[in-house]
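Quick one before lunch.
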Amino acid sequence: MKRFLFSFSLLVMLSLVWAACADSSDRSFDDGASPADRADGLSQSEIEKGIGPIEKVELSAVIDTALVSQGEAIFAVKCAACHKLTERYVGPPLGQVLDIRTPEFIMNMMLNPDEMARQHPEVQALLGQYFVPMPNQNLTEADARAVLEFLRDAYMGTSEVTP
Ligand code: HEC
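Model of the heme C complex:
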């Protein structure tokens, strides 16, 4: 009898362990970002960071003023025809775009606007307001990083934006 009780309780313990394992593997299966659940099929990271070559941007706490001047020059040639900092133009104002977009999103928009417009719901919503698709300006990643620094600097100096 003792022996039977022992093996019985062993069996109970084993089945508890098995149930716990089965349960936790179920949970880890459910956990993921479940991109398939989104109608647009994008992952949470793509929603936040946009679609394109930039996955992570390291920003220094202090603005790099040399980079800002480079970015300002590129902005004047390649962006100012459509963007102002404080008001709507052909495209949206960019003076405070860092309030609503991550640095990665902003760089991916500069480097990969076509795919962003095709796939990203936020850019599709903008297209609905601005009608013109933003063209690819053939920036290098270094150019885009410089323009981002210019926008960071502008952000600090911009107080009012008319959407
Ligand atoms: C020919 C006009 C045009 C040019 C040139 C242009 N853009 Fe745009 N941009 C737009 C439009 C229009 C939108 C709104 C989205 C759309 O309609 O595709 C936009 C959207 C954006 C956005 C997203 C704004 C938001 O609120 O999320 C960013 C960032 C941006 N542009 C940055 C730039 C930068 C930086 C440059 C220069 C390298 C540039 N754009 C050049 C027209 C332009």
